[in-house]
C-alpha cells in the first residue's frame, strides 16, 4: 500500500510552453511579468482545472497547491544576475526570480487560497513528500482539492510541467480514479513513457 | 499525537548563542549597521550575521550546518543519525548571484547534508519569507504521517548584492529604519541568519523545550509581491493553525508577528489579527525584524524560536523602533521595553512573496 492510498486523481494537465491566452486579462495584468517556468506550470494547472470543472463546484479557499521543481525560474534568476553586475535591478524580474512564483502565478490566476508549498527538489526526490502533504491536508479537511505539479527542464525534451488534481477518495463522491504509483511516476518523468 | 521541540539553534546578527541573543532581544538591541555597497541603494543598513572572507554560498552552508549541529546536539542526536530527516528552506539563497547554485535549487541543502554526514536526502523548501516556517510545518507533517520520528527543520539565508538591490528597486527597503507597526513605518531592512528546530514524535523526544501544536498555510492569490491587505488569507492561515492545534483563538496569549516594517505587510497583519481575534481576546504582539533585519528564508524559523524563548522565559522583548503604534491596530503591541507575560500558547505568523502565509502554534513547557 502506498502512503497516499486514500487519494484520487480527478484530472491531469500538462504543458511544455506557456499559453498566456488561457489566462484572463486580469491575471496577466496582475502578474505583469513571470518567468516562463511559472507560466508553463500555470498552463499545466489550467489544463487540469478546466478538465475537472472544480472551479465551478469548490470555493477557491478549498483548493491548495504543491509544486516540486529543482529548476525554478532560472531565466529570471540569470537576468537579475546580469543586471546586478551593472548596478541595476528590475523589480518585475526580481519578483519573477522567486522560486515560489511557480506556485504564486497559478494561485493568482485561479484565486487558490488553500495551503501552498514549493519544494525546490528534483521531482523524483520530492514527489513523495508533496503527496504526503496533500494527503494530510485532504484527509483532515484543510483543503478539498490539492493540485500537485512538477516543473523540470530536460536536456532532450525541454521544459515540461505536469499537474494532478487530487481529492480524498471518500470525500469527492466517486469523481476520479485512485492515485496509483504510475500516476505519481507520470508526474516525475516527462518524456520517459 | 504530540510533536515535541527538543532542540533549537540560530545564527543571527546579534550572535549565535540562544541565551545571549535572547538577552540582547530583551535589551532592545539591533544588529542593523551600515554595510558597504558599491552601487546605489535606498539604505546601506543591513544585519550581517557572520564575518569572514567566505563567499555567500559558503556562508549559507556554514550557517545552516552550524544551527543544525547545535540544535541536534541540544536534542541529543547526531547529524549522522539515519533517523533524523533534514527539512530546510531558503528564499533566494545565492541563486541570483552564483550561477552554479541555480543549476540545482536543492544543491545548497545537499551540500549541507554532505558536510554534516547526514545519510538522508534533504527535503528542501523555498516559499520566500515563509520558507523557515514552512520547513517546520512540513517536518511536523512528516512526523504525523509516520514517515519519520525526528526532523531537524528550519531556514537559512544570506545577504547578497542582488537581494539588496532587488528590495531597493522594489521600494520595499526602508530609506530610514525598520519600524514595524510604527506610524513612521516605511519599509524593511535585510539581514541574514539561520534558525532551526528539532521536532520529534512524543515517544522519542527528550529535553523538551516546547510542544509544536499545529500549523496552517494559505496563499494570498493577490500579486507577485503584493499582499492581500484585507488580511483574508493571513486569517485563513491562522484559523487553519487553530484547527490543526485544536485550540480556540482565545488560547493564544502571545504572537510573534511578521512585522517586516513595510506599510503593506503591517496593514495586512493589522487586518488579519482584527478578523481573527475578537475584541475580548487580546494576545500581545511582538516582532524581531528590527533586531535581526529581515532574514528572508530564515525568518520564520528564527521567529518561531524567539516565540518559544519568550513563552518559556515569561518575558516579551520590545519591538525595536516602535514608538507610536499605527492607528487601528487591535492588539497590544510590545513597545519600549521588555515586560513579563504568562502566555502558555503562542503563534508565529509569516508572510512571503508569492502569497505564502504560514502560521505556527507552540505551547510552552516550562
Descriptive key words:
A: 193 residues, alpha/beta, Peroxisomal Thiolase, Chain A, domain 1, 6-stranded mixed β-sheet, 6 strands, globular, B: 366 residues, 2 domains, 10-stranded mixed β-sheet, 14 strands
Largest sheet of chain A: 6 strands, mixed
If classified by CATH, what would the architecture of chain A be?
A: 3-Layer(aba) Sandwich
| H-E order of chain A | EHHHEHHHEHEEEH
Tally of helical runs of chain B? 9
Flag low-confidence runs of chain A: none
CATH domain class name of chain A: Alpha Beta
Helix content of chain A: 40-55%
- Look at the structure and give the mean pLDDT of chain A: 92
Label the CATH architecture of the largest domain in chain B. Answer: 3-Layer(aba) Sandwich
> How helix-rich are the residues of chain B, as a percent range?
25-40%
Provide a descriptive summary of the structure in words.
The complex is a heterodimer of chains A (193) and B (366). Chain A is an alpha/beta fold and 193 residues long. Chain A has helices at residues 25-31, 36-52, 54-57, 74-84, 91-96, 101-110, 123-139, 181-188; strands spanning 7-15, 63-68, 116-119, 145-154, 158-168, 177-178. Chain A has a six-stranded mixed sheet, sandwiched between helices. In chain A, helix 2 (36-52) packs across helix 6 (101-110) and helix 7 crosses helix 8 (181-188). The radius of gyration of chain A is 16 Å and the shape is globular. Chain A starts with 6 loop residues before the first strand and ends in a 5-residue tail after the last helix. The model of chain A has no long low-confidence stretch (mean pLDDT 92). With 366 residues, chain B is α/β, with parallel strands linked by helices. Helices cover 30% and strands 21% of the residues of chain B. In chain B, helix 7 links the parallel strand 9 and strand 10 (284-286). In chain B, helix 2 crosses helix 3 (107-116). Classes of the chains: A alpha/beta (193), B alpha/beta (366).
